[in-house]
């Protein structure tokens, strides 16, 4: 694979820790992306303000399964 340097830099910018550290871990506690942080904050906020919304959670799972099959 031959990726352009700008594409790699763009991808690395999604992981703030990579600006100052070399991250070598290859486990479940990898570098946290901006998108994961935002989704986690949204999830926690919804739990605090609305409680558990099972119908939305099930729909999200279905949507993710469908996106993996396409």
Report on this model:
The radius of gyration is 16 Å and the shape is extended. The longest helix has 17 residues. Helix content is 59%, strand content 0%. The chain is mostly helical and 70 residues long. The mean pLDDT is 88. The chain contains three helices and no strands.
Q: What is the structure about, briefly put?
A:
The protein has helices at residues 5-12, 34-50, 54-69. It has three helices and no strands.
- Decide which structural class fits the backbone: mainly alpha
Which outline best applies? Answer: extended
Q: How many helices in DSSP terms?
A: 3
Supply Rg.
Answer: 16 Å
Mean pLDDT: 88
In the predicted model, the low-confidence regions spanning at least 5 consecutive residues are none
Measured between the Cα atoms of the first and last residue, the distance is 23 Å
Q: Main beta sheet: strand number and arrangement?
A: none
Observed structural traits:
single chain; mainly alpha; 70 residues; 59% helix; 0% strand
